Amino acid sequence: MNTNICRYCYKKIQDRDELVTASNWFRIRPYHYRCFELLEQDTRTIAGAWTPINGRVGLVTVFLMLVLAIVLLFTNLLGGIGDLVGFLALYPVLLRILSFFIFEMHLPKYVENKNRP
């Protein structure tokens, strides 16, 4: 099964440069960066919004959530509630790791002469 197919236009994603992985309610989907922009314009509600996992925004989110999880899990800050919040903060980190291993690892970083979708 080829996992590197855009879920908006159903064309092959050729490299990491054009890949955007997004999550929505425990689902991870690959998109071309242009198709993801169209998807964001089509999505009108907060509940239906797709959140990008890779890229700068995803990296900052993962870093902040990892720091929060480490602080709450390895200290006694907030007691038992802090442990629960720490485990919940690991969710974006887990999504990013899954996104890398499922979608990004199999793609080259950049293809010089590629046909654009």
TrEMBL record:
Record carries keyword Transmembrane helix: yes
Transmembrane segments annotated in the record for this chain: 57-78, 84-103
Keyword set, alphabetical order: Membrane, Transmembrane, Transmembrane helix
Protein name as it appears in the record: Permease
